[in-house]
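Re: that chain you flagged

S.,

Sorry for the slow reply, it's been a week of failed gels. I finally had a moment to sit down with the sequence you sent. For the record, here it is as I used it:
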Amino acid sequence: MTRRTSKSRKNDRDTVQDRNTVFRVGTSVLLASASLFLFVALQSYNSHDPSFNGTGNGHVVNQGGLVGAYLSDILIQLFGFSSVWIPFFIALAAFLNIWRSPTGLLWEQVATLPMLAAVTCIASAMLDKAKIFPLPAGPGGLVGSMAINALNQTLGRFGTSILLVTLGIFSILVITRISLTNMISWFRGGIQGSKSWYSAEKPV
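Prediction finished late last night. Pasting the structure tokens below so you have them in one place:
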């Protein structure tokens, strides 16, 4: 009787685990599909498509159809070029949902991704002085424009540049797990190796 009960419990656990796996994989597929759709919609954005700001010319160019036209317009209005980070984040969520801990990603890496997106959003807004980018609110969108104005008033253009460079380098180092100490050691080792090779090859 005890053996049957243990076997029944094991079967129940296996059933629940199978259901969780199916649900997790199904959710990841949906997220991946949403990421792909949003990426294509952003890449095929056209300012003449229908949007909340206008009715367009009656012809939808966006590869995502009317839904893609409205979504891409909202995101590009808000974040400019940095809106391409959003489908990337969704794709990462799909990846993490399947693999979870085996990905090796730490929580600080995931938390740093929005920081990198914000840095690129604000940095893009700094390039809008010449008005050469054909986006409704500029390359940094409304968020980047408002942020750069506030930062320029508080830190000045030079201080803002230093802040963005610092946060950008910090984000990249955290996400890629690159150590500056290891890079310096590797560079120093390369120089020493080159000197040793040159000394060995140099005729006496």
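What I noticed first: Residues 192 and 198 are 10 Å apart (CA to CA).

Talk soon,
D.
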